[in-house]
């Protein structure tokens, strides 16, 4: 039976199969990056919002998925529950320096992404795996961190930060003003960094870690 939940579950599964978040899938299809966010799946009064036929057609074209294959996916989709976790894109931190792993909005892009199961996640979440001891004592080799752009950021939060023309950093947010962003890198050899907001390409909050 066709249902609102199963159609969206099929879109989520298609995104994960292609190593993308729902936001990344929307962007690949040439849609507004927020088109498939979970917050957009219901109206303010609680009524369900369905993806348009135009957006589905663009997604199928962008991923090479046949219509009958997607229909079968809808028919077999099972809602994400603790027994059937969410799949989010996953990449090792050691692979970030050598690949174009993110787009300008900080969403997973390029090759090398696999998937990682989590009990729950926002629609734009992705996972990074710690591959060395740079981030001790906070994160050990083999730990996986879950990162979200949608989750609000507060002082003291742990972030993944991408300055323009610099590598991705794992940091604590120490202070923020309209003219400066003060960060402390995560790790045994931590250091303070100060940026103008315009110098930051994107940032996202670390919301969970498998430790």
Description:
This protein has 211 residues and is α+β, with helices and mostly antiparallel strands. The protein folds into two domains: 4-76, 434 Repressor (Amino-terminal Domain) (Orthogonal Bundle), CATH 1.10.260; 86-210, Umud Fragment, subunit A, CATH 2.10.109. It contains four helices and nine strands, in the order ααααβββββββββ. It has helices at 4-17, 22-28, 53-63, 67-76, and strands at residues 86-92, 114-118, 126-129, 144-148, 158-163, 169-177, 180-185, 192-195, 200-210. Strands 2-1-3-4-9-5-6-7-8 form a nine-stranded mixed β-sheet, covered by helices on one side. Helix 1 (4-17) packs across helix 4. The radius of gyration is 18 Å and the shape is globular. The N and C termini lie far apart (40 Å). Mean pLDDT is 84; it is low at 78-84.
Task: Spell out the blueprint of helices and strands.
Layout (H helix, E strand, L loop, with lengths): L3 H14 L4 H7 L24 H11 L3 H10 L9 E7 L21 E5 L7 E4 L14 E5 L9 E6 L5 E9 L2 E6 L6 E4 L4 E11 L1
Parallel strand pairs: 1-3
Antiparallel strand pairs: 1-2, 3-4, 4-9, 5-6, 5-9, 6-7, 7-8
Helix pairs in contact: 1-4
């Amino acid at each position: 039976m066709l249902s609102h939940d199963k159609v969206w579950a099929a879109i989520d599964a298609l995104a994960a199969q292609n190593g993308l978040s729902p936001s990344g899938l929307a962007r690949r299809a040439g849609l507004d990056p927020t088109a498939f966010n979970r917050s957009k799946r219901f109206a303010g009064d609680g009524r369900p919002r369905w993806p348009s036929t135009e957006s589905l057609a663009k997604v199928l074209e962008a991923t090479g998925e046949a219509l009958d294959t997607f229909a079968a996916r809808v028919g077999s989709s099972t809602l994400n529950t603790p027994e059937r976790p969410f799949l989010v894109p996953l990449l090792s931190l050691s692979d970030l320096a050598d690949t174009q792993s993110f787009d300008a909005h900080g969403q997973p892009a390029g090759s090398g992404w696999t998937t990682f199961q989590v009990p729950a996640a926002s629609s734009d979440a992705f996972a990074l795996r710690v591959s060395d001891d740079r981030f001790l004592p906070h994160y050990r080799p083999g730990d996986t961190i879950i990162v979200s752009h949608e989750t609000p950021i507060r002082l003291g939060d742990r972030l993944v930060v991408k300055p323009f023309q610099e590598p991705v950093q794992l940091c604590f947010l120490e202070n923020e003003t309209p003219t400066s962003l003060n960060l402390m890198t995560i790790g045994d050899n931590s250091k303070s960094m100060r940026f103008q907001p315009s110098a930051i390409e994107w940032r996202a909050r670390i919301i969970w870690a498998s430790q």
